[in-house]
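Quick one, probably user error.
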């Protein structure tokens, strides 16, 4: 038996390239795949023996035994693709591939970063806020509604300006092209469209700076984000050119809350966002179980090495 790391992701994901590169310096084998490789470039042979799945995963380069997989790095693989089939047959084939290949992989006796079922549950922002608060982390007062009247009542109650941010994917495609929706301050006189779907509104938390906190297993890597433009001070994602980064210490109470959050949701990786207020208090905003980190990776913020070492250690246990 050769303990192996299975990497499941888009083949062009830069962060995953760094993780695989880090693993290459060890003696732990790595098998990288994308779910979109199946079935044209990936073959599955799996037999259930005494309740365990035995067999192989193979591509044109190599083959691994399912029983050898002891660690799985699952990030953002692509959907199954069946371009040669009609849409109705492709829909059927995607379902079979998801339950067949996906089901076998999810049944492996391995440690995950993160298991897809856990990551899926952890994507819901209402669940994130509830869990964070239950673990002792400070959270903003928040409203989710499709009622403009409720937004106005909420604003009157909190007595500070409100911000709004997307609940789902921030990218929208429409007849005039596409756009990205960033966090913005709410204009209470322009709430048309709120009734169309659910929207999230929060009190605007006083901000000294923001922190991207990358959690790898139980290790917290906190990075101070210094914003040098008005747009970046509202949402740092809107102006990356105006940002500087600095690794900082994570307060003990935040570490304890984060570890409780991760344990409650059965996660081993998350990219969390915090606001640090002028008085030094950390306020939790959200946690992405598949959040990006590669742009922060550097010698003083060794995120790729941290992930690679964790996967390697899981294989050695």
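Nope, works fine. Designed sequence:
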């Amino acid at each position: 038996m050769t303990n192996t790391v299975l990497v499941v992701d888009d083949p062009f994901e830069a962060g995953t390239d760094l993780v695989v590169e880090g693993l290459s310096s060890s003696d732990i084998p790595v098998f990288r795949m994308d779910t979109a490789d199946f079935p044209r470039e990936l073959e599955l042979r799996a037999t259930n023996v005494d309740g365990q799945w035995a067999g192989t995963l193979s591509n044109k380069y190599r083959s691994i035994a399912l029983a050898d997989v002891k660690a799985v790095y699952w990030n953002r693989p692509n959907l199954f693709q069946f371009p040669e089939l009609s849409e109705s047959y492709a829909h059927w084939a995607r379902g079979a591939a998801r339950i067949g290949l996906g089901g076998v992989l999810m049944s492996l006796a391995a440690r995950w970063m993160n298991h897809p079922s856990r990551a899926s549950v952890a994507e819901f922002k209402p669940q994130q806020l509830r869990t964070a608060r239950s673990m002792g982390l400070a959270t903003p007062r928040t409203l989710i509604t499709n009622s403009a009247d409720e937004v106005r009542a909420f604003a009157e109650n909190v007595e500070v300006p409100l911000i709004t941010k997307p609940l789902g994917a921030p990218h929208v495609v429409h007849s005039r092209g596409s756009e990205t929706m960033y966090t913005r301050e709410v204009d209470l006189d322009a709430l048309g469209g709120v009734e169309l779907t659910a929207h999230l509104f929060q009190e605007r938390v006083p901000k000294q700076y923001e922190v991207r906190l990358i959690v790898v297993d139980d290790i917290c890597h906190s990075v101070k984000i210094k914003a040098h433009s008005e747009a970046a001070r509202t949402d740092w994602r809107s102006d990356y050119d105006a940002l500087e980064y600095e690794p900082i210490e994570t307060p003990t109470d935040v570490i304890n809350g984060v570890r409780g959050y991760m344990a409650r949701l059965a996660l081993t990786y998350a990219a969390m966002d915090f606001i640090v207020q002028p008085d030094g208090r950390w306020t939790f905003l959200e946690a992405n179980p598949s959040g990006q980190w590669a742009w922060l990776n550097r010698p003083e913020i060794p995120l790729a090495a941290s992930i690679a070492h964790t996967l390697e250690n899981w294989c050695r246990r």
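The CA atoms of residues 178 and 284 lie 29 Å apart.
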